[in-house]
Every structure is written in C-alpha cells, then in structure tokens.
Write a structure and sequence with these properties.
With about 140 residues, the protein is mainly alpha-helical. It is about 70% helix and about 0% strand. It is built from seven helices and no strands. Helix 1 packs across helix 3 and helix 1 packs across helix 5. The longest helix is centred in the first third of the chain and has 19 residues. It is globular. The termini are far apart.
C-alpha cells in the first residue's frame, strides 16, 4: 500500500472518529498516538483532516448539492467522511489530479464502505469535480 493511500485511510478513520465523538472530545488527540504509520503518512493524514476542518462548511455544501436526493444526516458516516476527505483534496490540493483523488476514494470505499459505496462516492465526487472545474477532459483520439 502506498504512503498516500495509508494516509488517506488514516485520515478517513480520524474524520469518522471526529464525526462520532465531536470536535471537542478529549480522546480525539489520543487517536493519532495509536497508529504506527510512517511519519510521512501521519503528516499527510493530519493535513487532510485539518483541511477538512478548515473548509467543512464549503465541503458539506458541495456534497449536499451533489448527492441528489440525499441529505447529509442520512448518509453513511463512512461515506460522508470519505466524501469530505476527497472533496478537500479536490478543493485544496491542486497538486493531486482529480482522477487520482476520485480513484483513491473509490478504492477506499470498497474497503471501508458498503457494497453501494464505491458507485455512490464516484458519482458524487465526479459531480463535485465538474462543479469545481478540476475534472480532467478526456483525451480525444488522434
């Protein structure tokens, strides 16, 4: 598993913990001490979690607008945490191609989500990437 994938999975778990426990829960800082991730993975994971926290209102608005017929409280906590993570990458990490962010999110959804999670995550993130104008244009055959 790549360092970035490990970091994304760690960030997903941290966001899930924060969602369940709440921002002010004193056990949340302990979360980071229970993982033996390499320092690069921990650094990237913390950057992702901090980015989601800093842009949560905008991220949630993008998800709500893109998840047709679904209100955020009705979404699976895992799917919502993963969508928040990937939406932050689409918003705040121009150095990561949108296709990589979406593919990574789909793979993580396969591992941590339900049977329907990969398709749902793909659809929502694809729409968000279009709204943000970060979706790569398909290459036309020459």
């Amino acid at each position: 598993m790549s360092t970035r994938r490990a970091a994304r999975e760690l960030a997903l778990q941290a966001l899930y913990q924060l969602d369940l426990a709440g921002e002010g829960d004193p056990t949340v800082p302990l979360f980071w001490s229970h993982f033996d991730a390499e320092p690069q993975a921990q650094t990237f994971a913390r950057e992702l979690v901090d980015g989601v926290a800093a842009h949560r209102e905008r991220i949630d608005a993008l998800i709500a607008a893109s998840a047709e017929h679904w209100r955020l409280p009705r979404l699976s906590r895992v799917d919502l945490s993963l969508l928040r993570l990937a939406t932050f990458e689409l918003l705040g990490r121009a150095d990561i191609p949108a296709s990589v962010t979406i593919d990574e999110a789909i793979e993580i959804a396969r591992r941590f989500g339900s049977e329907d999670s990969p398709a749902f995550v793909n659809g929502v993130l694809d729409h968000i990437a279009q709204v943000l104008g970060v979706k790569e244009k398909p290459k036309s055959p020459e």
